[in-house]
Amino acid sequence: MSDFSPEVRNSGWWSGDSRMAVNGQAATAILIKQGKMEREEISDLEHVKMGHVMQPVIGRLAQERLGIELKDAAYPLTHPRESWLRSHFDFISADNKVLVEAKNYSSFMRSKFDPEIGLMPDADRIQCIHEATVHGAEIVYLAVLLGGSEFITVRQEVTPEMKEEHVKWCARWWGHVVANTLPEPQTVEECKISFPVSEEGTVIASKELETAARNYSYYSKLRKEAEDQEENCKQALMKAMGSKSVLSTIDGTVLATWKSAKASAKFNATAFKAAYPQMYDQFVQDVPGSRRFLVK
Fold this sequence. Notes:
By secondary structure, the protein is an alpha+beta fold. The protein has a domain at 6-186: Lambda Exonuclease, Chain A (Alpha-Beta Complex). It has ten helices and nine strands. The chain has helices at residues 6-9, 15-22, 26-33, 46-66, 122-135, 160-179, 188-194, 207-241, 269-275, 277-282; strands at residues 70-72, 77-78, 86-87, 91-93, 98-105, 139-146, 150-157, 246-248, 254-257. A hairpin with a 7-residue loop joins strand 2 and strand 3. Helix 2 (15-22) packs antiparallel against helix 3 and helix 2 packs antiparallel against helix 5 (122-135). The longest helix is centred in the C-terminal third of the chain and has 35 residues, at 207-241. The chain is globular.
């Protein structure tokens, strides 16, 4: 059975799950493990493929930059005490004391890193802590290739106290998986996931909720005004560009691009239904209607 099969991934809490949780997607990760949602298939995405291609290169760059011998660590491990806490890894030092996590990011991510002060995105930091906790390492380097032109490493020390806190944090989410429950939703998307179907009934608003409802209406109007302005500007730019793909200043600074995407094949359900109506009906199934949120 593959390490990345649904059965294996759903049998424990992995570093990827910790990344989702710290990004406000804990409910999604839990629902996937409970078998109530399908995991998004991303293996065919171009940036994911390129990440695999560039990983050995990033490993060699990290070895040279850090001055330590690295070896491949493409294996899964289970926490020595918590059998549900698991992780994969990229590279480890020859003395098995230092882990290196490789990332291939766009240059637009540059502002999110600062090796001098240890700055990195929360999802990357939690992944480093997760891997150190499972493997027992004290130091993890995040090795990042930015836009194919800049290479940086950010050091993350992981103390025993941090590892214990991480185990407790992950146990909070894993407990919901085992109990077949969901945590309190942290985002609008998690609210939609947690409460997909409406029921008859009324909730009496507190003073705080009355204020939230008024603020929601106010900010919705501001957003609509901003969207209208954005649409006007976009329309003016597109009208001026016509069929041309680039808009630039006199000195050559590119202001906007409007290029045709690569042609792709798309299934035509309407045509299929017309040609094979009986076969089409066999695969039609009812799905719950989405809930529509309105503030009066």
